[in-house]
Amino acid sequence: MQDVYIVGIGIHPFGRTDGVSGLQQGANAARAAMADAGLEWPNMQFGFGGSDSAGNADTIVNELGLTGLPFINVKNGCATGGSALIGSWQAIASGAHDVGIAIGFDKHPRGAFNALPTEYSLPEWYGEAGFMVTTQFFAMKLQRYMALHGITATSLGRVAEKAFRNAVHAAHAWRRSPVDIDTILNAQMISDPLTKYMFCSPAEGGVALVLASAKKARELGRDQVRIKAAVVRTRPPGSFEVFAPCMDIKRGGAPTLLASKAAFEMAGIGPQDIDLAQLQDTESGAEIMHMAENGFCADGDQEEWLANGWTNIDGRLPVNTDGGCLACGEPIGASGLRQVYENALQLRGLGGGRQVPGDPRTAYSHVYGAPGISGVTILER
Amino acid sequence: MGVSAIAEGLFRETPEPTLIGGRHRETGRIVFPCPDDAARWEAVDLPRDGTLWSWTVQRFRPKSPPYIGPQDFAPFPIGYVELPGATIVETQLTGVDFDRLTIGMAMALTVISFATDADGNDVRLYAFTPATEG
């Protein structure tokens, strides 16, 4: 297997862009990524891409050019972007190609995600009774975690406050105004214990990454950011996932535990070696739980971490440096690649007002979503 | 106007309410509801009493479809209740103030009027309520 480098990064702003389709947002991101690499669409030897609800990614050739390249559609829920990255990484690591592109984009209707029972192999009554609501799952997983490990509502507020504070300096973020913790804690309750500022919202956006072999990266003068690990894992027995009419009393692992362990093994480093991290923050509590599931701290230690600001930009492990899903919103097909975009930007030292100090060399990203899937990447400079 | 369960095979309402789960014929694993696969799963009555495993409050009206609850929405609590020796079931919670909900509290099965269907029937749904003391 040969080393793979990220040689170009591009993003279409997250949030709402009326009049621009999800696919077009993906194409805009692709153009930006290729320009960043000093390449053009005819240079792309392959593509992997996907969206959850904005159409088939391979139709992007209508926007970018009919070069005849192989383009593989990815539809993998919240791991769509991560899976596109893995496909691209393997295409180059295997030696089959020198350069190619991973694209993720989406455009969701306003309001909560509306899932139907039949899409999840569930009986009709489950939706009729009011259980097909993703926010319920996140709230109940968190409610139990807080009770078992002594996590307070104040910590939930601190996570959201940090997200909006970081996003002030991220041009691609959606919600870029600071929100103080009292406003966050006293806002409308959506699903106890989570208020409206503690949940991300369905949104729009596009991200693209150009990947290349070491030889090609050197030619381009872009051999700075290397992919050390890229993995996706599905759920093990006994994990707690969205849309579960029942679960076993004997509790088990979680897809994030599997993905994180595999990624650290692939990279040959451990959590203590990571300089910054982007962790799935569907809601404030998810970031807190994922700090532990990814091995960065013990269950319950997040109280001390957040009280001391250790996940702030200038902390010991900055987390969600661009404001994460809380501030950028959640276009499902694009979020995983946004995290990698942000990490690559930080490792190049181009974070501007949100740049992590101290010349970071390693960056970790983690997505998690329905129906129990997790993707982790580790980058190194 | 009559009475109808939200679905067949989920629960019995009389003489005492009972949830119907499924037991895997080989492994003995118990799930709810009973899968529609009689070759591998047999129906089994689940315990009526359990403890609250986690909870939240549904503060906004879920989208319709699929939700069929009343248009005139009032927030309702939901949770998971651990039924000893069986499984942990997802359920609406009833007859409890939101601020009394506590993980580990004793809960008992009941059946509630949940909605009215197009024919004016009273649609019944299983739920759990705090167990009465003594």
UniProtKB/TrEMBL annotation, chain A:
Thiolase C-terminal domain sequence ranges: 259-377
InterPro entries: Thiolase, Thiolase-like, Thiolase_C_2
PANTHER family named in the record: ACETYL-COA C-ACETYLTRANSFERASE, NON-SPECIFIC LIPID-TRANSFER PROTEIN-LIKE 2
Source organism superkingdom: Bacteria
Entry protein name: Acetyl-CoA acetyltransferase
Entry GO MF terms: acetyl-CoA C-acyltransferase activity
Pfam families the record matches: Thiolase_C_1
TrEMBL record, chain B:
Database matches in SUPFAM superfamilies: Nucleic acid-binding proteins
Record-annotated ChsH2 C-terminal OB-fold domain positions: 44-110
Listed InterPro entries: ChsH2_C, NA-bd_OB-fold
Superkingdom, taxonomy of origin: Bacteria
Name of the molecule in the record: ChsH2 C-terminal OB-fold domain-containing protein
Species: Sphingobium indicum BiD32
